[in-house]
Amino acid sequence: MALNIISWLFGIIAFAIGVVNTFWGNDPGFGIFILLLSFVYFLPVNDILRKIAGFTIPKLRLLKILLGIFIIWAAMGVGELFDKIELMMNSF
Fold first, then answer.
1. What stretches pass through the bilayer (predicted)?
2. Are 84 and 24 in contact (CB under 8 A)?
């Protein structure tokens, strides 16, 4: 239960990062990429894969952790998240 809540919370954070990167700044493709990655934290990925493709991803928790590290690293370093948040705040 607690891991499910953490997954949903991080999914919401990653989704928000994707929205900020999509609409403010100069790279909407990067923002859409982060948005799509955030759905891994919302959807029951293994159940969907089992129904559609007939296989599952082993050690999905480890994959989610590594993906989360990548999203944070990309948003803070490459995506310049704080500069884009400042742009967003100035536009309102």
1. 5-24, 30-49, 61-82
2. yes
Q: How many residues does the chain have?
A: 92
Per-residue pLDDT of the chain (92 residues; tens, 9 = 90+): 788 888 889 999 999 988 888 888 778 898 899 999 998 888 787 788 888 888 777 788 898 899 999 999 988 887 677 788 888 888 87
Q: 80's torsion region: left (phi>0), alpha (psi -120 to 50) or beta?
A: left
Other CB atoms within 10 Å distance of the CB of residue 86: 12
Residue 31: how many other CB atoms lie within 10 Å: 21
Q: Are 35 and 23 in contact (CB under 8 A)?
A: no
Which alpha helices (DSSP H) does the chain contain, by range? Answer: 2-23, 28-42, 45-52, 60-73, 81-91
Is residue 19 packed enough to be buried (19+ CB in 10 Å), middle (13-18) or exposed (0-12)? middle
